[in-house]
Write a structure and sequence with these properties.
Blueprint: H1 5-31, H2 41-46, H3 54-79
Helix pairs in contact: 1-3
């Protein structure tokens, strides 16, 4: 069976993007990188928000990872259909 790109492309893009952002945020939390509006792009992507509490920053990283991994699991179920 040939899959149309409309079937697999949205969950692949959303899953990949959110998983990468979630992993970047986990890396930033583990290394203590602090982001903010006037920081370089790398620190803004990896860094935590200075005005949020630590638990809210952790929650955002978990949310990104959850959205990403669920979309990648959905992609795997689409691709593995007979």
């Amino acid at each position: 069976m040939i899959l149309a790109s409309i079937d697999w492309l949205p969950p692949a893009l959303v899953g990949g993007t959110f998983t990468i952002f979630g992993l970047l945020k986990v890396y930033g939390l583990a290394t203590g990188i602090q982001g903010g509006g006037c920081k370089p792009l790398g620190q803004r992507l990896c860094g935590t928000c200075p005005s949020w509490s630590r638990s809210l920053n952790i929650g955002m990283a978990v949310l990104f990872l959850l959205i990403g991994i669920l979309n990648l699991a959905w992609l795997a179920s689409i691709v593995s259909r007979p």
